[in-house]
Amino acid sequence: MTYLEKAKKWQSYDNLESSLKDELSKMSDSELQEAFTNDLEFGTGGLRGVLGVGTNRMNIYIVRKATLGFGRYLSRFDKAYDRGVVIAHDNRHMSKEFALDSAKVLSSMGYNVYLFTDLRPTPELSFAVRYLNCIGGIMITASHNPKEYNGYKIYDSDGCQLVPEYADQVIEEINKIDDYFNIETGLNHDKITYLTEKIDEEYIKRVKEIILQPNLPKDFKITYTPLHGTGQVFACDVLKSVGYDVYPVTEQMTNDPDFSNTESSNPEEAKAFNRSIELAQKIGAKLVLATDPDADRLGVGVLHNGKYVLLTGNQSASIILNYILETKKRLGTLPQDGYVFSTNVSSNLPIKIAHHYGLKTNITLTGFKYIGQQAKLIENKASYVFGMEESYGCLISDFVRDKDSIQAILMLCEAASYYFTKGLDLVEQLECIYKEYGYYKEEQTSISLKGLEGAKKIKEMMEYFRNNEIKLPSFKIISKEDNLKQEKITANTVEKITLPKSNVIKFNLDDDCWFVLRPSGTEPKIKVYYGVVATSNEEAQNKMLLLKNEVLEIVNNI
Is 87 in a helix, a strand, or coil? Predict the structure, then answer.
């Protein structure tokens, strides 16, 4: 079916939601092409797209279709309808409506449904799936994307996002649905249970169990912002309840889908911290904390030599991991069978720290669902100790099977408390880690290419790096890991890669350096990740500049 035929189908539906009908009537041909040529696809974060009319947009019909497909997939499992599905949402436009619509689709199918009536963090949704023994979960969120976006994440019975093997089965069910305008939503509403604060209390109880040293001094100030998102539900209260002196950025503690009082909803971007730092300067805060809208990622600023230094996700995770392992070893609670998990675009530093303490490590593809899957596989066989990915996400205790900023906040603050007793702020502690393990530095280049032409260009870039011999003037390529072909290629050998198929290519270079090309699964962009290590910060910076320039010269000439 062409994009015009799809658009005509929508135009001819008499009961099309009024705002979508109005939008459709005003669209140009190019806008119709963008909205109807493709269907939204599940990527690393499930469905995610711009709100609006069309098959390539987030709207009630696409959400109902996805939910019906998910429900049909879940029906394959024993006692699926009785065990039911739990649903939560963030603060975005249409999030509450999408959550309620999803609940009505599932109840009409005969499922028991457990629905959070107000916004809740993604990690609590993951916890709730396991706590309620549900067969699955749905989180309505677009994470850190701009306000124009919304999204839809699906979870299995272990509170883990579905990996491609199972997401593909959901997609098969979704693709069988032709009539997404007449999906039943009016039956069995008595099967919808609205969740109470009991779930909140159980989740927070488990979060507090990660505390290692409860009696550390907490005589320093912290600012916190949820960037209008779900972190406002718990973060400040959790910190205050264990004794921290935390000051919320009041104007960003509102459930505002337009993100009116922040320059960015993404704590990976420095401008997201502008108002937090203004408050921190006024009160003399030593830490500046920010979570993204669904509160699974944590951004950190540290007062150092009179200025606020923003840590990368790799840096904050390395500090937290180092503190956990150092402390558990001293307390005699470090498990001998412990595992630390990371991803193939994250820093090698956490892996080196883990090995120093005698722990095993497991490197997965990007996406915390892979770490959740591996945590599930070692359950009752070995001990989960820590998981992290470079995009500001980590997980301390796997009673949640997704990244959890509430846990990360609590452990980051405890680490800061401990190192303050040693006369060190977290930037100084990071320097100590670098001196011991090497100066690791990571960066990324994000190349956004809009529309269908952009998607075509991204495909050309990946095919070039996949099929041509790549040479860098200043670095020797030791191996190429092509996760789509599931091959690791060296000068003399081709080995099978056991990671799942994914359109990701990693080049391992000499001297423990690397770079990765990875198209986004949810946005029209391609990311290039880089990692280097050196014996000094200056040498690492020079290496990084050299590596980036040489890789991007190839990219720009494609």
Answer: strand
143 included as an active-site residue: yes
What is the pLDDT, as a whole number, of residue 285? Answer: 98
CA dist 44 and 152 (Å) reads 11
Residues 190 and 213 in one domain: no
Domain boundary among 437, 466, 492: 437
Q: Using 50, 70 and 90 to split pLDDT, how confident is the model at 91? A: very high
Domain's final residue, options 369, 403, 437:
437
User: Which one of the listed residues 95, 102, 108, 143 is annotated catalytic?
Assistant: 143
What is the pLDDT at residue 45?
66
Q: Name the residue range of residue 403's domain.
A: 314-437
Helix, strand or coil, per DSSP, at residue 134: coil
What CATH number is attached to the domain comprising 326?
3.40.120.10
| pTM, two decimal places | 0.95
Confidence bin at 491 (pLDDT 50/70/90)? confident
- Interhelix angle 164-175/60-74, rounded to 10 degrees, is 120
Question: Which helix H or strand E contains 303, and what residues bound it?
Answer: strand 298-304
Q: Give residue-wise pLDDT tens across range 153-192.
A: 999 999 999 998 899 899 999 999 989 999 999 999 999 9
Mark 383-394 as b/e (b = at least 16 C-beta within 10 Å).
Answer: ebbbbbbbbbbb
Is the dihedral angle over the CA atoms 341, 347, 351, 356 positive or is it negative? negative
Task: Say whether 100 sits in a helix, a strand or coil.
Answer: helix
